[in-house]
Structures are given as C-alpha cells and as structure tokens.
Amino acid sequence: HRLRVHIDQIPVFPETRKLCRLLDLSPLGLIGSGSLLIACKPEVCKKLVSNLREAGIQVSRIGEVLEEGVGIEAVSQKDGPVEWPRFEVDEITRAIQKMGRS
C-alpha cells in the first residue's frame, strides 16, 4: 500500500528546529530515537490517540495508508504535494563528516 504523510504534522521540538536551522540540517533527517510509528485502522485511530494522550504520551497523527501501490506521498498543508526527503546518512553524521572536511 502507498502511504500519505502530512509532513508538517511530524512533531519537531522548537529547540531541534532552531539547532537544525543554525547547523543547516533537516530535522526529518535526524535519527528518531524513542519514536514509534503505529499503523491502525481508521475507525480506531481517534480512540487510540485519545488513550495515548490520557496516558501522558505525546502522539500525532501524521498520515494514512492509501490504496494498493508503492511509495510515500508527502504533502504539506502550506505547499500541497512535496518531494519525500531522502538522506544517504542521518543529518548528524553528515554534519560531523562535513566538519571533518573543513
């Protein structure tokens, strides 16, 4: 199945955004340690999100599963369809490698 990801719904801490801006990194290319992606049926999504929030767990609905096919369709509320970002290595590794070449 294809996936549609609402790219601006992916949570990023303000501090992470600021550091990424200063270091010219994309927050979407950082390793998401501690993150968990859950796929569930649409009819249970609201209840699952509610239960997780009640348990004190931060949760965001960032996309949905589409009809059969392959690939990821990224969309932005502001810009509409956008290209799905690809990273050869995580952004921290890229920054460290870049500093080593300076």
Describe it:
- The chain is of the alpha+beta class and 102 residues long.
- 33% of the residues lie in helices and 15% in strands.
- It has 3 helices and 4 strands; from the N terminus they run E-H-H-E-E-E-H.
- It has helices at residues 14-23, 42-54, 91-101, and strands at residues 3-6, 63-65, 72-76, 80-82.
- The chain has a 4-stranded mixed beta sheet with strand order 2-1-3-4, with no helix packed on it.
- A hairpin with a 3-residue loop joins strand 3 and strand 4.
- The N and C termini lie far apart (43 Å).
Query: How many strand elements?
Result: 4
Helix content: 25-40%
Largest sheet: spatial strand order:
2-1-3-4
Q: What count of helical segments does DSSP give?
A: 3
The helix-and-strand class reads alpha+beta
Shape assignment: globular
* Major β-sheet profile: 4 strands, mixed
Radius of gyration in whole Å, from Cα? 16 Å
Fraction in beta strands: 5-15%
Span between termini: 43 Å
Q: Secondary-structure element sequence?
A: EHHEEEH
- What average pLDDT do the residues reach? 91
Identify low-pLDDT runs: none
Brief summary:
This protein has 102 residues and is α+β, with helices and mostly antiparallel strands. It contains three helices and four strands. The model has no long low-confidence stretch (mean pLDDT 91).
